[in-house]
Amino acid sequence: EAGVAQSPRYKIIEKRQSVAFWCNPISGHATLYWYQQILGQGPKLLIQFQNNGVVDDSQLPKDRFSAERLKGVDSTLKIQPAKLEDSAVYLCASSLDSTTEAFFGQGTRLTVV
Amino acid sequence: RKEVEQDPGPFNVPEGATVAFNCTYSNSASQSFFWYRQDCRKEPKLLMSVYSSGNEDGRFTAQLNRASQYISLLIRDSKLSDSATYLCSKGSYIPTFGRGTSLIVHP
Predict the structure, then answer these.
(1) Which residue of B has its CA nearest to A37?
(2) How far apart are CA A8 and CA A76, in angstroms?
């Protein structure tokens, strides 16, 4: 069974530039998550989708971050403009529903310089 | 208070030792709990689910104590390869992760 696919694996951008991450969840998984993980910390939920609807985005900095999940499958996360403190690993995960285990992609390591 | 709290460690133990981690949680409405393992610069991967009756998988045992609102992970006969960060997660309408506990197993 194919896992969660993410791209790119690594990205280096200058502050104030924009960047986009892509995620393809496991087939049939209705719930999709984007997490931000800063070194030494646990994953912090940015946004949670159920199919193509947003369940929670309370920790998403909406002035610069946006995410969408068109057609309830693939998802993109965008940052515009990026700040130095956005340097982190962005993990996409999916699950059958929010009470079952999550399966993570390999993540995108973002460095903002 | 954070919804899920863990001691970040590190826990530094010799091979063969038994080590236990606890994870406390708030908001007891959650029905499901999980332990994930995260290796350095890798994504978290499910280690085991935590059931009310307890769950054992080889050298690993997970327990749930609803009255005191914590889950635990016990690792027996630690191996060098067990060195990693262990994340607990509370499954709910909006799942939450702890910050992880670092385990270092040395020869």
Answers:
(1) B99
(2) 11
Q: Do A45 and B96 touch (CB under 8 A)?
A: yes
pLDDT tens digits for A23-72?
999 999 999 999 999 988 899 999 999 998 999 999 999 999 999 998 88
Burial pattern B32-54, b for ≥16 Cβ within 10 A else e, equals bbbbbbbeeeebbebbbbbeeee
Return phi, psi of residue A86, to 5°: -80, -5
Task: Give the C-alpha separation, B73 to B1, whole Å.
Answer: 22
CA distances from B76 to A52, B14, B57 (A): 43, 11, 11
Whether B42 has its CB under 8 Å from any CB of chain A: the answer is yes
